[in-house]
């Protein structure tokens, strides 16, 4: 899973991963297996803030690194999301702000804690199960049944409604940013993840913020709306377009532009 941050005028390429593997790119790599390296911010056994013990790495490649951890106080499994303190584009603060605003709503992970040290910023939240990109690919036809797709779609729609309700756009709606619950009680519930690209779309008085003349591209090329490809200011409708593309991919197993890596070609 990779996020793109092209300025409107910048030349685009197919985008190869930088050596750190965490630079901007233009296609979804959430199917790559998670491998731990010595460059990782944490290793198994590390304890964060004398409380959360790292079990293993479960995600990363975008802006953050995600680890499964054990809360030594409550004995429950948690997810730790980290961002290097050295990273130029700091997004975890936004992530924490949105996650906190969404607490108590359906389809949202429970917030457990957050903090920072000289090496990284982190947020701790409830651990969920596998994401919807992995689950779709694990299906025999690489697609969900119509009924599964519709049931997922309805839950995702409600999750999007919740984030819009609190005044934010998600701006990176895609299958790897949703996960199923881990425990049997929530095994059929979808959870929305990753608020790193969220943006407030309302003013303090609750009006929709005036659009900027040109906004840099944010999101993931494969699921981006035509508007987003045109570098227009995004709105609630753009999150819904991404949901629509997700649903087509769920039912069909692919999108017509899945193999095109060039952002300009996908959007034209
Ligand atoms: N709370 C969580 N529980 C379980 N898995 C998670 C959780 N948060 C993230 N993940 C996994 O890590 C992956 C990357 O996390 P995400 O928040 O999307 O970060 P990024 O900014 O790197 O995309 C997700 O696709 C999901 O598989
Ligand atoms: Mg993500």
Automatic annotation (TrEMBL):
Transmembrane segments: none annotated. Residues 1-25 are annotated as: Disordered. The keyword Nucleotide-binding applies. Residues 52-268 form the Protein kinase domain. The keyword Kinase applies. Coiled coil: none annotated. Residues 7-21 have a biased composition (Low complexity). Keywords: ATP-binding, Kinase, Nucleotide-binding, Serine/threonine-protein kinase, Transferase. It comes from the Eukaryota. PROSITE patterns: PROTEIN_KINASE_ATP (PS00107), PROTEIN_KINASE_DOM (PS50011). SUPFAM superfamilies: Protein kinase-like (PK-like). It comes from Cordylochernes scorpioides. This is TTBK2. CDD domains: STKc_TTBK (cd14017). ATP binds at residue 81.
């Amino acid at each position: 899973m990779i996020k793109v941050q092209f300025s409107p005028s910048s030349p685009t390429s197919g985008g190869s991963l930088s050596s750190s593997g965490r630079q901007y790119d233009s296609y979804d790599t959430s199917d790559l297996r998670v491998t731990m390296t010595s460059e990782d911010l944490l290793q198994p056994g590390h304890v964060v803030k004398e409380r959360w013990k790292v079990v293993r790495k479960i995600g990363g490649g975008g802006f953050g690194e995600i680890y499964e951890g054990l809360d030594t106080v409550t004995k429950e499994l948690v997810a730790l999301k980290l961002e290097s303190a050295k990273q130029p584009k700091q997004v975890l603060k936004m992530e924490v702000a949105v996650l906190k605003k969404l607490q108590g709503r359906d389809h949202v992970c429970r917030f457990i804690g957050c903090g920072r040290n000289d090496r990284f910023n982190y947020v701790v939240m409830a651990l969920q199960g596998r994401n919807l990109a992995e689950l779709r690919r694990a299906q025999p036809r690489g697609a969900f049944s119509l009924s599964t797709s519709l049931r997922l779609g309805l839950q995702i729609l409600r999750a999007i409604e919740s984030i819009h309700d609190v005044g934010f756009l998600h701006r990176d709606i895609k299958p790897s940013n949703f996960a199923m619950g881990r425990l049997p009680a929530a095994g059929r519930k979808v959870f929305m993840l990753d608020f790193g690209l969220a943006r407030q779309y309302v003013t303090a008085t609750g009006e929709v913020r005036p659009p900027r003349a040109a906004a840099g591209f944010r999101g993931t090329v494969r699921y981006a709306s035509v508007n987003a490809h045109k570098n227009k200011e995004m709105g609630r409708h753009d999150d819904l377009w991404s949901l629509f593309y997700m649903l087509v991919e769920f039912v069909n197993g692919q999108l017509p532009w899945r193999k095109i890596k060039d952002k300009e070609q996908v959007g034209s």
